[in-house]
């Protein structure tokens, strides 16, 4: 069972780093004020002010910054400022031996799926949740509160309305997942995570429907779907199509592969690239219940 880092308490120190795309000073400043409102002390990593083309500094700057926060004994959580692209470029150069002596929470989503999965492969829980650059986005108040609850050990169950593609049932298992593109790209790497007996959650943004199908084919062919305990399908925001339509929505594509198996499935789960991006604890054992009235996810 993955190890749970200590939950935060008032006056703990947390760090903001950017392992992928660059972030603006205004975005960081807004997040700092919110975190201070949670009675936390905030440390800004050097990557939050660094720029190298689209990245938050060079690979070395981003790696060094994250390594420093992983090792720092007084840092109790690391919040990844934003996604984009770049985390997989540095992940193999990180040393987690210091982190293993003093585990701490790491939180983020999108490109940070790589870090969430890597930590789970090493045996640690982490948080898939909203990131500092959009802490103050309109409509995101509930998602931000769910992140605070996860960090402080106050997580609540989630309920979602019924969806016509849902498959009823009850499942228990550890949560694993995140961005579909990243999950597909991690297959066969040191950051790959087994899915058998687990509840998988998926989301993505601005992907062509054909690519979503291609990635689902890959997950299915590599056995990632075969022995799932359950499946949560989140936001597939701004999906694109070719001049000749693919002929299925993102949810219909996913259903075509999920329906080959018998695990419960809940569509429309509030996770992904939209304001309602509720925090999920990767590696935490949970129970998924899907009925004709809707779905509920609660930690065991």
CATH superfamily of the largest domain: LD-carboxypeptidase A C-terminal domain-like
What value does the average pLDDT take?
Answer: 98
- Residue stretches low in confidence (pLDDT < 50, at least 5 long) are none
- The number of domains is 2
Reported for the largest beta sheet, the result is: 7 strands, mixed
Number of strands: 13
Q: Kindly, what is the distance between the CA atoms of the first and last residues, rounded to a whole number of angstroms? A: 13 Å
Strand content: 15-25%
Radius of gyration: 18 Å
Helical proportion, percent range: 25-40%
The assigned CATH architecture of the largest domain is 3-Layer(bba) Sandwich
The total of helices stands at: 8
Give the SSE string. Answer: EHEHEHEHEHEEHEHEHEEEE
Shape type: globular
Q: The CATH topology of the largest domain is what?
A: Glucose Oxidase, domain 1
Identify the strand order in the major beta sheet.
6-13-12-7-8-9-10
What do these coordinates show?
By secondary structure, this protein is of the alpha/beta class. The protein has two domains: 140 residues, Rossmann fold (3-Layer(aba) Sandwich), CATH 3.40.50.10740; 142 residues, LD-carboxypeptidase A C-terminal domain-like (Glucose Oxidase, domain 1, 3-Layer(bba) Sandwich), CATH 3.50.30. Helix content is 27%, strand content 24%. It is built from eight helices and 13 strands. α7 packs parallel to α8. The mean pLDDT is 98.
